[in-house]
Amino acid sequence: MKLNLDTFWGYGASQAWAMIAEHNAINIFRSNFHEVDPGRLYRSAQPTTYQLRRYIKEYGIKTVINLRRFKGRTTLGALEQKVCEEMGAKMVSIKAYSRQMPRPQTLRHFKEVFENIQYPALIHCKSGADRAGIGSALYLHWTKGVDLDKTGQLEFYPYGHIKGGRTGLIDHFVKLYSEELSKSPSLDLLSFSDSLDYKEIEANFKPTAFWNTVVEYILRRE
Question: pTM of the predicted model, to two decimals?
Answer without folding.
Answer: 0.90
